[in-house]
Fold:
Amino acid sequence: MVLILFFPESPRWLIAHDRREEALAIFAKYHGEGDEQSPVVQLQYHEIIEQMALTRNENPWWDFSELLNTRAARYRLYMVIGMSFIGQWSGNNVVSYFMVRLRLYLARSQLTIPSPK
Amino acid sequence: MIKNAGITSTNKQLLINAINPIFSMMGAVYGATLLDKLGRRVMMLAGLGMGLVAYILLTAFTAASETHPNLSYGVIVSIFLFGVVFAWGFTPLQTLYAVECLENRTRAKGSGLNFLFLNVAIVVNTYGISVGIAKIGWKLYLVYIAWIVVELVLIYFFFVETAGKTLEEMHDVFNADNPRKESTKKTKVEIDEAGRVVNIDA
Structure:
């Protein structure tokens, strides 16, 4: 485990943290025999930078502000919230999940469904 | 004899409880085929409106069956009716509408929040309704009748129409001063014989 300390840093991590010169130096050392301008080194280096630019996540998972920061975004959110509550609070659960309970209530008030004769 | 009657009644209860979701499902499937033809607003308003009628029937039958036990069949019929019309209007829209209201970038987070609010609503239901039934019995239906009316008004005045609109059009809708008005606006497009757009009257 101690040996890990002597491992070279991951060039992808270095690029992601704006330490591009160090990343390039590592590529040069291991893939380009010390030459930073070697085509293999340059290709790998630019490929990674391009990939990072494309896939970089500008809004991290914990940041919900974009759902609230404009009037339009808030209106959209109101629709979402409204739909959630209207879809559940319109009495639909009373007649499905609570039907048994209601029938118990009816039974308690001496009401039974008469069986057809 | 009484015991026998009790057993058939239990079986009947089971049967009723089993058939209700199947009817509702058929209503939901039929509703899903009409979503684009009728538009979201019409579906919501019609589904909830018919649900309101069913709920009023349900309340009336339940209240009347306290003195006329024969009318408790009417209770069952109105419960079925409500299940079908509500499923017809709302079940297909439940997740669809929320997602349609969100823009592409925020859809993942927005639907996450949608399910959070959905579960909050369900929790309140689960704990609240049982207390309500125990306290006021069938009069709980009256609360729902009033609440459904409030919901109808909210939908009529504030909920936007999303049917047949692209994400870009939805962007304009939500940025308008009155998103609901903007979304229900009719756009007239004049086309000449060759199919070219001559005039757009928004």
Q: What stands out?
A: Chain B has eight helices and two strands. Chain B touches chain A through 70 residues (CB under 8 Å).
